[in-house]
Amino acid sequence: SSQLASFGHQPHQPTSMPASKEVWKKGGRMFSILLAVHLALLACTLVSSGAFEKIAVHDYDVFFRLTVMMLIVIIWIIFYLVGTSRCPDAILCKDSHAGPIWLRGGLILFAIFSLVMDVFKIGYYSSFYSCLSAIKIIYPIVQAIFLVVQTYFLWISAKDCVHVHLNVTRCGLMLTLTTNLAVWMSAVTDESVHKAHSKLKKNMTEDIFRWFLKAGMRSSSAEECNCNSQICQIFKNGYFWLYPFNIEYSLFASAMVYVMWKNVGRFIEHHSHHIQRLKFRLFRRTFFVGIVLGLIILVSGLGVLILYEVQVNSSTESSKKSQALTMYYIFNIVCLGLMSLVCIGGSVIYRFDKRDMDRHKNPTRTLDVALLMGAALGQYAISYYSIVAIVASTPRDTISALNLTYALLMIAQHTFQNIFIIEGLHRQPPKEDHKHDSHQKDLYGLTFVNINAVSLRVPDSGSTLAPSTAAEAIHPSDLVRSLTAPKKMNWRRKFLREISMFLLLSNIILWIMPAFGARPQFDNDTELNFYGDSMWPAIVDICLPFGIFYRMHAVASLLEVYI
């Protein structure tokens, strides 16, 4: 009777376990979300208020608040590494999909350039220490320490599923995420103000420029100090050129921290817990067509970027500016058109792909899809604003027609690429397609096959069948199709790999061009005249960073799916 009683309690265990596993999704998660929302709104208020001179919020107030946040995050990360992660049963499992090697490698690359940027900042602000607040030098020092500590933390802990100190870990991760977003907002604002000042300085004298700064837009406190030495100018120009790397680092780190937050208290299912090994398969089983075309686009884009910077930013002649805009639009139209066509071709190939859809719970994939769709909204907004301005404006010239085509293709390319990548993210890995029935596995290993002999083969189940029945079970024609099926699948995979390599290299150059100064939205007079000098730059400053981030996230997603 005791055995029957103990046996009777067993069915209740599976039903109670899921309820206990889902407790982590409730109170603690909601509290950490509210904490992140309030901190993010406060950071956004300070950063946006500090962008204008008439508001009594200065840049050193923003830097002080960011410094305090980074110091708190550094203390919590040390507590996590020393205390939480070393507790018994702290990390019962790891999420194999979180923090892939190429994402962590990209994070380290951006962190290195961000450290160089902080060194340039320290050197620049140290050149006139007497007329600046001390926080302007303390901030880049603390940011450099924050970069090192956070990068190490994400490298070793990105896959963790923590099961101790749940509420503290959730709040710490949300504080880390909010800090990265606040640093990102500050960097985007500083870069936008710097570019606006550069445009004004090119068309104004020094006295008029300083009067304009006092009238409205924020001038950095460093603008009031003289930077006459050569080394000071090198530091100043250097750290502004490195801002795009710091911006991308903050967004990459935020994405990885969010996945860690989703994995707090999570139990990984057995079928989805597998170890990913880095395999250098970049140039295996490929025709090099996608790589060659992608490299041609990449090199051509670098040439267009250099010519654009020289003719637009270094020359005041309107003819050279028109030539630079025409060259820029033609290159992007060709690039976006090719990318749209290959994305459509990849979606067609998916219609013949026999791989099953992966419907398992995967926070990393959910975040990838959300970021792809959300970041694309920034470029969608700029494109639709441009379309309305071009269609409603008169007269229409060649540059307006090229700009209209560029905006339409930008919308189409983002849409088709999102469909292609998201469909790839939801497919089972290619290696699972090699799983065949037991009789097919035996046949694939044969060099010479006697079709008539194999057609009479007895099934593996051990049941005795007549020769006629066995022949009906495995027909020679079916056997030939089974033998040729992997070859056909390899052709599909090769085409998908070629498409992914071309898209990867094309997205890299489309990230480099706007990130390093090629922004025709500020140089084309159509939108500026239609929306005004205040509204249009604000739209671009808000939306363009999302478009730049979209390109890098598309590269990471393509690496995750195909490479």
From TrEMBL:
<feature type="transmembrane region" description="Helical">
    <location>
        <begin position="536"/>
        <end position="559"/>
    </location>
</feature>
<keyword id="KW-0375">Hydrogen ion transport</keyword>
<feature type="transmembrane region" description="Helical">
    <location>
        <begin position="168"/>
        <end position="187"/>
    </location>
</feature>
<feature type="region of interest" description="Disordered">
    <location>
        <begin position="1"/>
        <end position="20"/>
    </location>
</feature>
<feature type="transmembrane region" description="Helical">
    <location>
        <begin position="62"/>
        <end position="82"/>
    </location>
</feature>
<feature type="transmembrane region" description="Helical">
    <location>
        <begin position="102"/>
        <end position="125"/>
    </location>
</feature>
<protein>
    <submittedName>
        <fullName>Otopetrin-2</fullName>
    </submittedName>
</protein>
<feature type="transmembrane region" description="Helical">
    <location>
        <begin position="240"/>
        <end position="261"/>
    </location>
</feature>
<comment type="similarity">
    <text>Belongs to the otopetrin family.</text>
</comment>
<keyword id="KW-0812">Transmembrane</keyword>
<feature type="transmembrane region" description="Helical">
    <location>
        <begin position="282"/>
        <end position="308"/>
    </location>
</feature>
<feature type="transmembrane region" description="Helical">
    <location>
        <begin position="370"/>
        <end position="392"/>
    </location>
</feature>
<keyword id="KW-0406">Ion transport</keyword>
<keyword id="KW-0813">Transport</keyword>
<keyword id="KW-1133">Transmembrane helix</keyword>
<keyword id="KW-0472">Membrane</keyword>
<keyword id="KW-1003">Cell membrane</keyword>
<dbReference type="InterPro" id="IPR004878">
    <property type="entry name" value="Otopetrin"/>
</dbReference>
<dbReference type="GO" id="GO:0005886">
    <property type="term" value="C:plasma membrane"/>
</dbReference>
<dbReference type="GO" id="GO:0015252">
    <property type="term" value="F:proton channel activity"/>
</dbReference>
<feature type="transmembrane region" description="Helical">
    <location>
        <begin position="495"/>
        <end position="516"/>
    </location>
</feature>
<feature type="transmembrane region" description="Helical">
    <location>
        <begin position="404"/>
        <end position="425"/>
    </location>
</feature>
<feature type="transmembrane region" description="Helical">
    <location>
        <begin position="137"/>
        <end position="156"/>
    </location>
</feature>
<dbReference type="Pfam" id="PF03189">
    <property type="entry name" value="Otopetrin"/>
</dbReference>
<keyword id="KW-0407">Ion channel</keyword>
<feature type="transmembrane region" description="Helical">
    <location>
        <begin position="30"/>
        <end position="50"/>
    </location>
</feature>
<feature type="transmembrane region" description="Helical">
    <location>
        <begin position="328"/>
        <end position="350"/>
    </location>
</feature>
